[in-house]
Amino acid sequence: MEPKTLFDKVWDAHVVEKIDGGPSVLYIDKHLIHEVTSPQAFAGLEARGLKVFRPEKTVATPDHNIPTVNQHLKIEDDLSRNQIETLTANCKKNDITLYGLNHPKNGIVHVVGPELGHTQPGMTMVCGDSHTSTHGAFGAVAFGIGTSEVEMVLATQCILQPKPKKMRITIDGELQKGVTAKDLTLYVIAQLGTGGATGYFVEYAGSAVRNLTMEGRMTVCNMSIEMGARGGMIAPDETTFEYVKGREFAPKGEDWDKAVAKWKELKSDEGAVFDKEYTYKAEDIEPMLTYGTNPGMGTGISGNIPTADEVEASELPTFKKSLEYMGFGLGDKLLGKKVDYVFVGSCTNGRIEDLRMLASLVKGKKKADSVIAWIVPGSKQVEKQAQEEGLVEVLEEAGFELRQPGCSACLAMNDDKIPAGKYSVSTSNRNFEGRQGPGSRTLLASPLTAAAAAVTGVITDPRELF
Amino acid sequence: MPIDKFTVLESTYVPLPIENVDTDQIIPARFLKATSREGFGENLFRDWRFNPDGSANEDFVLNDSKYSGQILVAGKNFGSGSSREHAAWAVHDYGFKVVVSSFFADIFRNNALNNGVLPVVVSPEFLSKVFAAVEADNGQKLVVDLEEQSISLNGEKEEFEINPYKKNCLLNGFDDIDYLLNKKENIEEFEQE
Ligand code: SF4
Description:
The complex is a heterodimer.
Chain A: H1 6-12, E1 15-18, E2 24-27, E3 30-33, H2 39-47, E4 58-60, H3 78-94, E5 97-98, H4 109-115, E6 124-127, E7 141-144, H5 147-156, E8 158-161, E9 165-172, H6 181-192, E10 200-205, H7 207-210, H8 214-222, E11 231-233, H9 238-244, H10 253-263, E12 276-281, E13 288-290, E14 298-300, H11 316-326, E15 341-344, H12 346-349, H13 352-362, E16 372-375, H14 380-388, H15 391-397, E17 423-426, E18 441-444, H16 447-456
Helix pairs in contact in A: 2-5, 6-8, 13-15, 13-16
Chain B: E1 8-16, H1 23-26, H2 46-49, E2 71-74, H3 86-94, E3 98-101, H4 106-113, E4 118-121, H5 124-136, E5 141-145, E6 150-153, E7 156-159, H6 164-172, H7 176-181, H8 184-192
Parallel strand pairs in B: 1-2, 2-3, 3-4
Antiparallel strand pairs in B: 1-5, 5-6, 6-7
The complex binds iron/sulfur cluster.
Iron/sulfur cluster binds near residues 110, 347, 407 and 411 of chain A.
Catalytic activity (chain A): (2R,3S)-3-isopropylmalate = (2S)-2-isopropylmalate
Pfam family, one (chain A): Aconitase
Cofactor (chain A): [4Fe-4S] cluster
């Protein structure tokens, strides 16, 4: 038999039919929905007089548009409240499981899916959200879709998709102390650029990837979309099984043993062919920071913003426009630049390990008075665990406060907006113009680098504070 | 939603020679609170088009009466970022039927096609000529012929690629859901396996 990639194995097992010269009809095992990209899909379904085809395969949680304070009160913003009520009504009407606001399992859709065991190796998963790639960390084929496609999945549990090309990114070696999964992914994106993986599904491999925890793997797969990839995935192994085992929706007993036996087959065969391959050394990676308005504009924290000579001439006008927005100059050094806000949260870095990292660095120190810090757990369960582990206490002693879970300042749909012109060191995934609020200036970083900025008030190498 | 049929379009065009135009620029998140598909055109390129006080930014191309048309021409990597279909709705609602660029982000391209907006990928050289031509003469037109899969500027023609299935959908105004609904039996069979 011809050797197959991990991606091929999962994809091919879900093809209902391939249209000649066209896309495939791909069966979807798990569909996640939230309040922002689903209402028009339900409305479309209704207009066609259709019911949800397989409601038990869809799970819903509001996250993008919810407040992160006083969640028990009525949502003040009429439009936001309407979106959340619409989701609730749609789920009720169609028998879809909903982890609504104030539900003990509510949270960001890409945090909730894995922590409840909805996410499992070998699945196909979609969500009307580009960071659905997160779930690829388990060896699932998971990708973001538009609302018309959400409607397709609700109506038929299938989607029409052309098969993407395959890329493998291998990172061998050992990450240095203070260098995290987030730095690894920002490094790769800086190498490939924001469109570098467009049209591809990426498999991450190599010892540095293998040695990551599940949460670290999720951070890496989450960011795949930021280099244009359709999705990212990592072959499941003992780390994966260990994480999934015992979770609410994970298979139990005999089913578990059967499932694991199947999951063990999910890896790229020796000799499987990728359309593109890249290899990097973990030792080359230092804590990373972005300085521009797309996630590919990043550098090691001790580095400089490129000079005019270092940027391709054709790209210089866009590059300069971006720096102008950021208030930075060509060739500037990043260390020591002033920081106004720090945001730790999002589906990229809003999990328990991220809060542990933050706490480990700020423990016994104090937040700089000049910095406003928003610490937003990715879910209710993360919040609870942070309390139980005493992290909340450590953070409070250092002058930090936890907000309630949600997407928050990652996309600033609610009131959590960074004011115009202010600098935010953020553990989220996008630094686009205005992403964190109109005029906001975002520097993407790991929780450790964010923590270091929070305690010093300036861009600081976290390794200096250990 | 049934989509508009697309065959041939001859139109003046609006140049946006910026690279990596992401979905947060096309439609910022704070305008995603609606529960219907209509009206997003008003906020297309919101933060470039309007000043923080709500007045029109005269420097932005959509506010420049010199340029108009049903074709938007943008720098490479148009539509990167989020999966929000609102971006495609905004482009469509504003009145664009075609977006031309040398490179599109995947999800945006899919979303555009699902809404009857045709993404046309041209070579970087052709793109430069298109930008230069409209600078010289803002009455300049482009002709996009879907059947022929060609785009022409002053008689200079370039072919573009499109998946034959999607081409057929656009030519006839079919959408994917209709197709899938017709496959229900096969889908149920697949579930049994
Ligand atoms: S945290 Fe940010 S990136 Fe993740 S789902 Fe929410 S808005 Fe999207």
